[in-house]
Amino acid sequence: MIEKEGTMFDVIIVGAGISGINAGYRVQEKQPDYSYAILEARGGMGGTWDFFKYPGIRSDSDLQTFGFKWRPWTDNRPIADGASICEYLKESAAEHGIDQHIRYHHKMVSANWSTDEQMWTLTVDADGETTYFHSRFVILGTGYYDYEEPLAVDIPGLENFGGKIIHPQFWPEDLDYSGKKMAIVGSGATAITLVPNVVEKVERVTMIQRSPSYILSIPNSNAGALALLKWILPSSLYFKIARWRYMFLAFLLYRVCQAYPNASRFLLQKGAKLQLPETISTDPHFQPKYNPWDQRMCLCPDGDFYKALKTGKADIVTGTIRTVDKTGLQMDDGTHVDADIIITATGLRLRLAGGAKVSVDKAPIQFSKKFLWKYIMLQDVPNLSFMIGYTNASWTLGADASVTLFTRVMSEMKKKGSTSATPRMENGDQIKSTPILNLSSTYISKAMDTLPRSGAEGNWKPRDHYYKDIWDAKHGDIQEGMEYTTVST
């Protein structure tokens, strides 16, 4: 074990959000003799849930699976608000002493691997001062969103608008929208969340979408047989059953939508029609041009989005924005949407490693030129792992499979007496590449040329589903495509 003196550790985890906290737990569980630190660029724990402040921010996955396997979510609501999730993360970290390893206001600027020293050197901005950390392993729990810069908004004439323009990523806590006319541009999870959470205060809210999303209403309470089991079974057994139930339902929904896209489309649109007011039709507002799960499906707890539309203070406009003028948005069909406030809920900018530069022996690594070994480690980059979650299930499931696999690689290195583990690919230029994110959303498509690639064979293939991936993380092959090296330092 490397002593925790100053800035030298066995493992450095970057990011104190849900992935980083989970990684901290798994490292101290699987590698109890390893020292570790968590570097967090901001001043608080929680990542997304500490950062985003727009009205109604909530999970778009159930907390039974989005929460930690090692500390069950006990609230009766499967879909929770951001503040509750953030509090859950803080309590989980404190309960297991993970919070004692976090160093706030420590932003990793760059990371360089030295082959001679078999060590990572991280250049860190520590509250305005440059300092250096050293570790054998680096775990990137930074997610894949850019916290500092939103996705560039492509709305013609936006500069002409005479009111306020707000991006949800930087929502002002003092924004008063009472009695205002609000236009929300976008049709993803953020827009679907905002509409029911602002409708009571605004004079009117209009969601403007170029292309609709699939919106699935789900009950936001554990009722029926699950509620009965909670009273009958021991807590530990109940939470296992609840977790596996939600995992199975999400898995089943995705597989059915992929196998029977036309039937799934019909049922989802029929479900929407049953909940809509007579003034809003499914055509064109709830008829996406793509199949279910080609883009991430939006969840609507207790049908709150549809209830907002029934108030008469919320509506939807589907079409292309021609331009923005001083008083609102002019659509191609001649419709004018009056607005005092425009919310640009058009997606987030993707950025890996928190924007830090990664190099090996001072040679820069271009993520887009590299393949991912088992979805966690970059080709030709030793002892570094990404915590990447799922796009078609809860993020945390994928992040946990990632760190479970990486700590197993650490154990294999101990067994072999290795100082480094480096993914190597022979004939990489002959292997067909596939995207690492299997969605067609605009914000993902725009970032594809900056992301690593998956391969079409062997340990370079993309993930499939959690059941298979967690088994593989614990028992699968970790020799193919991996070079274990021992170097005396």
From TrEMBL:
<dbReference type="Pfam" id="PF13738">
    <property type="entry name" value="Pyr_redox_3"/>
</dbReference>
<protein>
    <submittedName>
        <fullName>Monooxygenase flavin-binding family protein-like protein</fullName>
    </submittedName>
</protein>
<keyword id="KW-0503">Monooxygenase</keyword>
<keyword id="KW-0521">NADP</keyword>
<dbReference type="InterPro" id="IPR051820">
    <property type="entry name" value="FAD-binding_MO"/>
</dbReference>
<dbReference type="GO" id="GO:0004497">
    <property type="term" value="F:monooxygenase activity"/>
</dbReference>
<keyword id="KW-0285">Flavoprotein</keyword>
<keyword id="KW-0560">Oxidoreductase</keyword>
<dbReference type="InterPro" id="IPR036188">
    <property type="entry name" value="FAD/NAD-bd_sf"/>
</dbReference>
<keyword id="KW-0274">FAD</keyword>
